[in-house]
Amino acid sequence: IDNKDVEVKKFPQAHNIKKETFSMIKTALRKVVDDEAGTAHILSMENLSVAGKTGTAQVKDGAAHAWFVGFCPFKNPRLVFVVFLEHAGSSQIACQLAKKILEAMLKERLL
Please, is 63 exposed, middle or buried when counting C-beta atoms within 10 Å of its C-beta (0-12, 13-18, 19+)? Predict the structure, then answer.
C-alpha cells in the first residue's frame, strides 16, 4: 500500500478442519467464479484467478443488500476483499464493482 510492504501474519490452522476439507472449500470458492454457471462468473479473468462467495441479505424495507467476498490470486492469495452494497438488490452488482476494482488494481500493478 503506497509502495510500502505490508506485514503478513500467519494464523494457526483452525481447529478440527482437515487439510482435505479446507482444500475442497477453496476449490468450491474458485468454481463460484471459474464455472460458467457460477454465481460470480462475471469475475472470471484471464490474468487473475479469483475465488469467493456471493450473497444477499434481505432487509425489512427496500432492496436486499448485495455482497461478494473473495481472494486472489487463487493459488497464492495476496488479497482478501469484500464488496458490500446496501440495498443494491443483487450480488451481481457487487461482483461488477469487484471486477472494476480488481481491473484497476491490475492496471496499476498492485496485483
Answer: middle
